[in-house]
């Protein structure tokens, strides 16, 4: 049997298809958002905290503006590494994203003995979302009104002070270590799985001190059961101008502002990154979202992917230097 002849036209079509095949994956990725498919926005802390609140505010606005449903999913645990691994397993199609505090990228690699990801290779930077300080809060039963009072009390009562944190190796933990070493006091570390649990136990007096995210700190101060005694930033918070900085109280170098960003899995196409970036930027620039974030002493800070990459590298280097300076050992 004589094999069929391939005409010149057919050969040309086959050649064209061969050239197009490598690009089909990229074209498929560019099909975003996919019809009737929600965007999963993963949060690495429990529901009810400031990180969760910001994520839900932004998700709600994106849904209103774009018609694409954005669903917040809380996956706390392992210093937020479980949430990072969830993103690493996801397809790079823009429908699974991480709403991530800087500690996942800038602190965990310096403080934890085993980190199952590379902060620079395993994620796609999309945009910065918000920036804000941590606040040193204490339970009202502790007889202190400011940082110097706390130092004096801790030295007069060795071994009795404890600090809560929203996870080992997180910014709240590192700030406590840096502070206690800087002023020469000792404190027991009590780690939690999220900001909400730590803040609740501070309110109940189960822990004495806690470097809390500003939104929760300000809200809980209104109960009268806790006090804010210092803000870890270069300047006072507009939302709580009565709270002095650490530098004003004689403790310098505790002013590494925390940030929250949106990242996706590695390998996202530039086309999808641009679309996702535009969605988040539009939401973050809305007055409703800016007002919500500002109430908690944070500020909306949308960026380009390149700007987020630069911030990630800068924060990674700064936290590395801080961890080294306090002699923190990986755990």
Number of strands: 11
Please outline the major beta sheet.
6 strands, mixed
What does the radius of gyration come to?
A: 23 Å
CATH 2nd-level architecture of the largest domain? 3-Layer(aba) Sandwich
**What is the number of helical segments per DSSP (H or I, 4+ residues)?**
11
- Provide the residue-averaged pLDDT: 89
Question: Might you state the CATH topology name of the largest domain?
Answer: D-Maltodextrin-Binding Protein, domain 2
CATH C-level category of the largest domain: Alpha Beta
Secondary structure category: alpha/beta
Task: Produce a short descriptive summary.
The protein has helices spanning 8-29, 50-66, 81-89, 102-111, 147-156, 171-183, 195-204, 214-221, 270-284, 287-295, 305-326, and strands at residues 39-43, 70-74, 96-101, 123-132, 134-139, 162-165, 188-191, 209-213, 226-231, 258-265, 299-300. With 331 residues, the chain is α/β, with parallel strands linked by helices.
Account of the 3D structure:
It holds the Pfam family TctC. Residues 1-28 form the signal peptide. Keywords: Signal. This protein has 331 residues and is α/β, with parallel strands linked by helices. It has 2 domains: 39-132 and 258-326, D-Maltodextrin-Binding Protein, domain 2, CATH 3.40.190.150; 134-249, Periplasmic binding protein-like II (D-Maltodextrin-Binding Protein, domain 2). The protein has 11 helices and 11 strands. The protein has a 6-stranded mixed sheet with strand order 2-1-3-10-4-11. The protein is globular, with a radius of gyration of 23 Å.
């Amino acid at each position: 049997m004589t094999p069929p002849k391939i005409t010149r036209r057919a050969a040309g079509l086959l050649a064209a298809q061969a050239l197009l095949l490598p690009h089909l994956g990229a074209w498929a990725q560019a099909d975003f958002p996919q019809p009737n498919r929600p965007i999963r926005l993963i949060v690495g802390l429990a529901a009810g905290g400031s990180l969760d609140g910001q994520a839900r505010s932004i998700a709600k606005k994106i849904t209103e503006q774009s018609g694409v449903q954005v669903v917040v999913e809380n996956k706390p645990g392992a210093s937020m590494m479980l949430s990072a691994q969830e993103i690493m397993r996801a397809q790079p199609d823009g429908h699974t994203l991480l709403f991530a505090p800087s500690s996942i990228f800038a602190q965990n690699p310096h403080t934890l003995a085993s980190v199952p990801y590379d902060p620079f290779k395993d994620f796609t930077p999309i945009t910065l979302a918000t920036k804000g300080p941590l606040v040193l809060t204490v339970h009202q039963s502790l007889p202190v009104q400011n940082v110097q009072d706390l130092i004096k009390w801790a030295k007069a009562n060795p071994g009795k002070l404890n600090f809560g944190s929203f996870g080992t190796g997180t910014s709240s933990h590192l700030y406590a270590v840096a502070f206690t070493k800087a002023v020469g006091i000792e404190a027991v570390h009590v780690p939690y799985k999220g900001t909400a649990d730590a803040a609740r136990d501070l309110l109940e007096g189960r822990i004495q001190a806690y470097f809390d995210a500003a939104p929760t700190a300000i809200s809980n101060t209104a109960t009268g059961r806790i006090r804010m005694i210092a803000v870890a930033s270069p300047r006072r918070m507009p939302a709580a101008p009565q709270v002095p900085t650490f530098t004003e109280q004689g403790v310098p170098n505790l002013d590494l502002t925390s940030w929250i960003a949106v990242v996706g899995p590695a390998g996202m196409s530039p086309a999808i990154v641009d679309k996702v970036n535009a969605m988040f930027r539009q939401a973050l620039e809305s007055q409703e979202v800016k007002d919500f974030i500002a109430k908690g002493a944070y500020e909306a800070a949308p960026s380009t992917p390149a700007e987020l990459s630069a911030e990630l590298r800068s924060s990674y280097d700064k936290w590395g230097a801080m961890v080294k300076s306090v002699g923190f050992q990986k755990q």
